[in-house]
Amino acid sequence: MMSCCLNSITHLRSVGFGQSVPEQSLWLLHWFANEIDININDDISLTFDPNSGDYGSHQYRNDEQLLEPPPWGYQYYSLGNIHREGSLRLPHHVFQLEHEAGNRARIIIRVREPNHGWRTSQIIDRVYITQHYGTSEYRGTDYDPQYTYGITTSLLRAIRRFSMDSDDINLLMSLRNRYRNQVYITQHYETSEN
């Protein structure tokens, strides 16, 4: 199972993927926070179809039981694989960092499948950031549970406030580095379903 749930910039600062959150994971999470729609009720809607391979997306079966099994009518998707073909591609700066870092960072989302009769959009009820094991660990394509974190809507909203320019991202990286020893992490998502 995942390590914990992050719900603020303070929590993000305290987390280490190895020694610290890698830059490509922050860029991927920043891109994602700005790509989705969040309404006033904190419902997160997709702006693309993860079944089409957009943004390196594909169904994630959770074979290694990294996450809890999805309830009926829900599906997990993984985003961020730069080697997957889709009509929508990740921005160049995210793609380039992922290429240089070995294409390990991913976002996993749990999506309520749309009711096709009512043509509703796909709603995300869980967001996770993770990474594949390093190639030196010989674990194939499994995700590393030690570096898998739930991401709350509050954190996604906070990350959105940073612009895509390098000054804001550098500030975010600086804050992460300065406060990485502080640990303010919640342990689990609430288990109640809507």
From TrEMBL:
By its UniProt entry, which PANTHER family does this protein fall under?
Answer: PTHR38706:SF2, SI:CH211-198C19.1-RELATED (PTHR38706)
Q: What is this protein called?
A: Uncharacterized protein
**Can you name the source organism?**
Maylandia zebra (zebra mbuna)
